[in-house]
């Protein structure tokens, strides 16, 4: 029942009076209207724009947000109105739906925004009225195609870990940019296609005379060379075809596909020729078979997207092309007949029969006008001119349709490429934002810790250092920290850029570079005390690469899959640990630091001359690949660069 | 809402622009002709005429105007509105009977006054008023008595509203049998027609009918 007529329900119920006297049994009880309120106005405040409507209007659709008690969640006691923090433009359409029973889709609105709003208000988009439904569906389809495109390219870029050899090969064939080998293969086949086509062409060029005989084409003069070239090309094509056949996920479908047919047709003549050279009778037929070698040029369509689009366009315009052909045929037959009978009278007329006149008609209608057949009578000339005029019209009509189809498909492809490029940029931005936020978390954690430590040290603190975190951020960080504590793991940052970033936070320079290097050297000699995280000390590679800080070598820890940049920071951190052992006063505070930190961080804003703090997790080494660093009470001498990560408590 | 009771304010585009182009069809002209606009009498007058309160009249009018922005309902519209309440069956015949019952001055259209007058009787009238109204509904040719044929039409239209998919399945003879039982109950002097007195008298004796008449007290 459309809600627009809900207001007429009392009438419908009243109309039931006609049934009462004829009914033989008692009527059921009517539902009681428990809270018989007077109809009241409701104020709906959507982002500041106030809409008002009757309560009963909204209650027409009880399974939506506004019609059910769900809207009570949005009731604002102070202003006695319902406040929605949503788009007022779309809300207009939603409210009109309640009023009129018809949901309209405004054309200027973005389809996904509109869908989101509808989902929020609990309205199914299927009830959009007929007037707007087509537009809505079109836009929705475009959006879905775009999403599918995105997903496809995403899937292409994901590295699927367990691809069989066959699947890898197929992917390499279909998309040459997946690996270098595929690219090489792509160019090699392209080169050989070109070579093959060129040899076919050059074969027929007359090449100068051999004394004693007439002029020969190159193919016969250097037949051995050409034969070798041909053989080589065919070998490559055969190998390629067989490889594709092997790698294809569905061989039956592959064999039936157009490209494979072209491949087969391109190489068949050679093999047939090999088989048939003995038999002189059929060598004539064999010669004609060579014409099929020209099909090799179609193999280029794998290499050129434009060609594929053209082929696809022609396929999709099949009906227009058919119409063109049909109308042309009709016109040709008509005009040929007319010309034949018009020219029948004249002597030595070239128009010997109607089929012979076909040639004249075609040449005239396409405005070629070779001039080998010309009408001589006056009637013939008149009809000839009519023929050429109408030819222009008939041909010009379907051509724009084909052209526009081609242009649409071509532009669709362009848009897909643009979207892919844009997507890369977008993903990069998202990644940066993500790392930024996790950095913020780690910074704040550090700062919180350091503040604790600084208070221990009693170092005078400089105010206004570092970034202030908002309440939301601090709460978020607290949440992450709780998670870390719960799981006993900690967050790491995966961005190589960060390791080289000299922080915006100003530091005291507790040590300078030389000292740092010295310490680096020293650290390699020392043992790590308190190996609560034996995983680190069990990595001999660490100490040896400790001093390679300056040289950006990509070394890997045995059990970790981290890039070396992180390794570097690890080294920095570990050296700091060493440094710290020179300050015995701090080590005693290590345990207290632990305690303090265990209480939970206060993600304070104050900071950050001190940018390093290392705390280890007393976890078993089986939890690698997380790094565990040896805990340290090093707050005195600290590194210049902010560490890129630290292990949580 | 003091509007004049204008039955029609017709905007005839044909006279206005004078360029009546016969090529561009008469469909548009039909649209122009049908945009009549009817405004009902003032609220106070309606309050006097009917037994509804001011607020109830407001609510009724808002609903009425929503479906019929032009202010009057013609038979087609009426049937279409009523059919929305009975999606399964065919309510058009019964709607026609209703329309004729509401359209008291038989001018082919139901205005808001007619509408509200009818509703007032049904929803706010005494039992006798209601029975009278029902009798008026049944009496298709308004001659003061209900014949078996009229009753059969009414019965068929009611059964039509149920639609095809019922349990138990609709039998052909069901309406006729129902009419027979109705006449048996109502027709006192067995003369083949039911007059208004017979009707009211028989209904007042029937418990079920009396009780079902109470249903209309709380509709609005």
TrEMBL record, chain A:
One of its GO terms (molecular function) is A-type (transient outward) potassium channel activity. Residues 40-139 form the BTB domain. Gene3D superfamilies: 1.10.287.70, Potassium Channel Kv1.1, Chain A, Voltage-gated potassium channels. Chain C. Residues 525-563 are annotated as: Disordered. It catalyses: K(+)(in) = K(+)(out). One of its GO terms (cellular component) is neuronal cell body. Residues 525-548 have a biased composition (Polar residues). GO terms for biological process: action potential; potassium ion export across plasma membrane; protein homooligomerization. The keyword Isomerase does not apply. InterPro entries: BTB/POZ_dom (IPR000210), Ion_trans_dom (IPR005821), K_chnl_volt-dep_Kv (IPR003968), K_chnl_volt-dep_Kv4 (IPR003975), K_chnl_volt-dep_Kv4.3 (IPR004056), K_chnl_volt-dep_Kv4_C (IPR024587), Shal-type_N (IPR021645), SKP1/BTB/POZ_sf (IPR011333). The chain crosses the membrane at residues 181-202, 222-243, 255-276, 321-342, 354-370, 382-403. Residues 1-16 form the signal peptide. It is found in: Cell membrane; Cell projection, Dendrite. PANTHER family: POTASSIUM VOLTAGE-GATED CHANNEL SUBFAMILY D MEMBER 3, VOLTAGE-GATED POTASSIUM CHANNEL. This is BTB domain-containing protein.
TrEMBL record, chain B:
Belongs to the recoverin family. It comes from the Eukaryota. CDD domains: EFh (cd00051). Keywords: Calcium, Cell membrane, Ion channel, Ion transport, Membrane, Metal-binding, Potassium, Potassium channel, Potassium transport, Repeat, Transport, Voltage-gated channel. Gene3D superfamilies: EF-hand. It is found in: Cell membrane. The keyword Ligase does not apply. Residues 1-21 are annotated as: Disordered. GO terms for biological process: regulation of potassium ion transmembrane transport. This is EF-hand domain-containing protein. GO terms for molecular function: calcium ion binding; potassium channel activity; potassium channel regulator activity. One of its GO terms (cellular component) is voltage-gated potassium channel complex. The keyword Amino-acid biosynthesis does not apply. InterPro entries: EF-hand-dom_pair, EF_Hand_1_Ca_BS, EF_hand_dom, Recoverin. Residues 90-125, 126-161, 174-209 form the EF-hand domain. Residues 1-17 have a biased composition (Basic and acidic residues).
